[in-house]
Design brief:
- By secondary structure, the protein is of the alpha/beta class.
- It has helices at about 5-15, 15-25, 30-45, 50-60, 80-95, and strands at about 70-75, 100-105, 125-130.
- α1 (about 5-15) packs across α2 and α3 packs across α4.
Amino acid sequence: MRRVTLKEVANQLELSRITVSKVINGKPGVSLETQKRVIRKLLDSGYDKLTDEQIRLVEKPRDAGVKSVAVITIAPDFSEFWLNIINAVSRTLNREGYNFIYSILAKGDNNRYDLPKTINREHVSGIIAISGHDAFHVPQQPGRGFGPAGRLPERF
């Protein structure tokens, strides 16, 4: 994805570059509503240098129920490419009001990948499985309460 420029964001929102710069740098003098508009546009444009505090300004309110998604992987690749993917998934889930749980699976004694015991319907709303190297299948695990895998929304 190409980097968005300050001028592009300002033009798209019909704001000055100074206003957008103030929001990015956390400077005073910009209304809360304008800050939210700029932050939403930056997030939608793939800008990844916002602070957690800035992101929280535009988060949807969390429900009282379980709103966590587990992202699981095996043989993780810690290259910048994969770290950017994990970071993007984390930010997207956060923006949509979900907690992000990242877990690296290891093969169990039975030579298959088992989910950690804390990843179950009581604690987690869904699972995203990512593998950079090997195709893997997390077998259905009785008593966990998860149904079959589904397709991710297009925005992921």
